[in-house]
Write a structure and sequence with these properties.
38% helix; seven-stranded mixed sheet; alpha/beta
Length: 200
């Protein structure tokens, strides 16, 4: 489906932080949630325009590739007072793509900080903003790389301002995560079939 590698050689995408707070808990909203979704999360902060070019990169290099995939979404968090700027940004992105899986979430300073702190990433937000995009799985764990480029360091987030990193690392890692769920689904069905054969 996505990768040609066999199930026996398949390496799962590492979990770099477990048990992220689901946004539905952080702001008591049932409209948005991470559980049972594959999510890319961004923090726009107090100045939406700082990451505008990075979000356009993300839209072009990653979002469009997975628009038709089930349970895929991009969540972009911003300060509640920036509603007007966000509406302009949505129009700019929407000029190039179908926005159905882009979710822009207004949140308070406290909600954003509590949510971000659960990532256990030691790079702080700057004015509630980050230049990184974060990949969160269906079980609300942060995924990334444990040995990025062989340098021994963990990759918690993907640089929005690097087309190469979005097009290479993030796009590839989303594919690996989807393949992981696909392989697990196949294995589950195979086990069910085996149980039927032996009358269990």
């Amino acid at each position: 489906m996505i990768l040609s590698t066999g199930e026996n050689n398949f390496t799962k995408l590492p979990v770099v932080s477990e048990n992220i707070i689901d946004i539905s808990q952080a702001n008591n909203s049932k409209k948005f949630q991470l559980k049972e979704h594959i999510s890319i999360v961004c923090f726009l902060g107090d100045n939406v325009n700082i990451n505008k070019s990075g979000l356009l990169n993300l839209n072009e290099k990653v979002y469009k590739k997975f628009l038709d995939y089930k349970k895929f979404q991009i969540l972009a968090f911003y300060s509640k007072r920036n509603e007007q700027e966000v509406q302009k940004l949505k129009k700019e992105i929407g000029a190039f793509t179908d926005m159905q899986k882009w979710k822009f979430i207004a949140a308070s300073k406290e909600e954003i900080e509590v949510f971000y702190s659960s990532f256990s990433f030691d790079e702080p937000l700057v004015n509630l903003s980050s230049s990184k995009a974060f990949l969160i799985d269906k079980n609300v764990n942060l995924r990334g790389r444990l040995n990025d480029d062989g340098k021994g360091g963990k990759l918690y987030g993907y640089n929005l301002n690097s087309v190469a990193e979005l097009n290479g690392k993030l796009k590839d890692d989303v594919k690996v995560l989807y393949y992981e769920y696909y392989a697990a689904f196949k294995e589950k069905n195979k086990n069910k079939a085996n149980r039927k054969e032996v009358g269990l």
